Amino acid sequence: MALPQLTDEQRKAALEKAAQARHERAELREKIKSGKVSLESVLESDDPIASRMKVSTLIESLPGYGKAKAAKIMDELGISASRRVKGLGARQREQLLEALTK
């Protein structure tokens, strides 16, 4: 499938939208890291920024967790590395909360 040809204005708008999404995602990660936003609230959120965040990125945003711990937890719970928060099932959300709030 060929990519659509964008006008200069459309390309600029798309780049600005992507930059804004990255900025909002970084803000959310910082709020999670500082404790202003809880893991549970992110998992239950309907916010598109939170919903589209990869589960591994969410775990890595928690204090004391890095890439290795996040990968280990996701492997133990059978969650794919490419899975996004919105794509988690109810059981996976419960298991994730249980594993990360011990």
Task: Please render the helix and strand layout as text.
Elements: H1 8-34, H2 39-44, H3 48-52, H4 55-61, H5 67-77, H6 90-100
Biased composition (Basic and acidic residues): 8-22
Protein name: Integration host factor
Domain Integration host factor-like helix-two turn-helix: 32-98
Content of β-strand = under 5%
How many helices does DSSP assign?
A: 6
Q: Could you state the order of secondary-structure elements as H and E? A: HHHHHH
Distance between the termini: 46 Å
Average pLDDT, all residues:
92
| Global Rg | 16 Å
Number of strands: 0
Shape: globular
Q: In terms of per-residue confidence, which ranges show pLDDT below 50 for 5 or more consecutive residues? A: none
Assign a percent range to the helix content. 55-70%
- Sketch the major β-sheet: none
Which class best fits the helix and strand makeup? Answer: mainly alpha
Provide a compact summary of the structure:
This protein has 102 residues and is mainly alpha-helical.
Describe the structure in your own words.
The protein has about 100 residues and is mostly helical. About 65% of the residues lie in helices and about 0% in strands. It contains 6 helices and no strands. It has helices at about 10-35, 40-45, 50, 55-60, 65-75, 90-100. Helix 4 crosses helix 5 (about 65-75). The model has no long low-confidence stretch (mean pLDDT about 90). It comes from Thermophilibacter gallinarum. This is Integration host factor. InterPro entries: IHF-like_H2TH, IHF_actinobact, Ribosomal_uS13-like_H2TH.
